[in-house]
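Could you join me in thinking about how sequence relates to backbone shape in a protein? Label the sequence line and the structure token line clearly, so we can match residues to local backbone shapes. Once you have written the record down, we can walk along the chain together.
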Amino acid sequence: MSLDVAPTLLRQAEVGDVDEAEFAATVAASLPYAYTLVEKLAADLHAGDPAREFADNRTAPTEAERGQLLRALASDAIRGSLERRFAVKLAFQNCHRVAVFRPGAADSRTYRTFTSERSQILNQSPEFRDC
């Protein structure tokens, strides 16, 4: 299970729309490593040089942390919530390398390069083969 959902949030979902802030809080509580990593990378991107196109993480996480990243970034709802919350476009490689780009970056050469097959191949390493 990806998220530990409070009964009040479950009731919201059963009758209609879910409060975005409550959903984000659920993600933060359920997937703290993934949430905090995206939060940190977004802060780095937004606080830095406005010409900087992205911020990324190359630190190898533990198995539990890697699982959180996979659950967060494999879910369109969770990924979208993180992108809206932190005003970023997320990209993901090798179950550990997360990058945040500025909104609208999907059309940029840098984003297309990061998410290309070539970059995926060049970012391989034996320690991440079974992630």
